[in-house]
């Protein structure tokens, strides 16, 4: 028997003002779990809130959700660019419909809520987006990390390491 195929994870970052530590902690934990990570955004180089310049592997408009085992939306104030982005919603819904892991941290869970993925689900996110999550049907818990089925949400930078660990556990399962 050959080696199991590495899990492929798409990490979606805002082109500007994503949370550097949420991205780095999640990527580090996912790669340590054997995942292959692909970064998507709307332009070819994204810039984090603390200045991390990140080369983008694929533009979000070119993503085929069937190519990935998980889709992770990284938070930060810039994540609001995906709140009303039809392509981001399609991507999240397509992954969820295939039973794949869909995750979001900080401000990014709003994208999942607007896409209709958090209705009746336990979820968390940055306290400033609490109302947007509850309006989207989420059962907001305020926890650092919340997993409800194939949906993982995190509260933000304070939960970056736990978010990464939860993602790594989920893709190992």
What is the topological layout?
Blueprint: E1 8-12, E2 16-18, H1 20-32, E3 36-41, E4 45-48, E5 53-55, E6 58-59, E7 70-73, H2 86-97, E8 101-105, H3 109-114, E9 122-123, H4 130-135, E10 139-140, E11 145-148, E12 151-154, H5 160-172
Parallel strand pairs: 1-3, 1-7, 2-4, 3-6, 7-8, 8-12, 9-10
Antiparallel strand pairs: 4-5, 11-12
Helix pairs in contact: 1-5
Structure description:
The chain contains 5 helices and 12 strands. The protein is α/β, with parallel strands linked by helices and 173 residues long. It has a single domain (8-172), classed as Class I glutamine amidotransferase (GATase) domain (Rossmann fold). It has a 7-stranded mixed β-sheet. Strands 2-4-5 form a 3-stranded mixed β-sheet. The chain has a two-stranded parallel sheet with strand order 9-10. Helix 4 links the parallel strand 9 and strand 10. Helix 1 runs parallel beside helix 5. The longest helix has 13 residues, at 20-32. The relative contact order is 0.19. The mean pLDDT is 96.
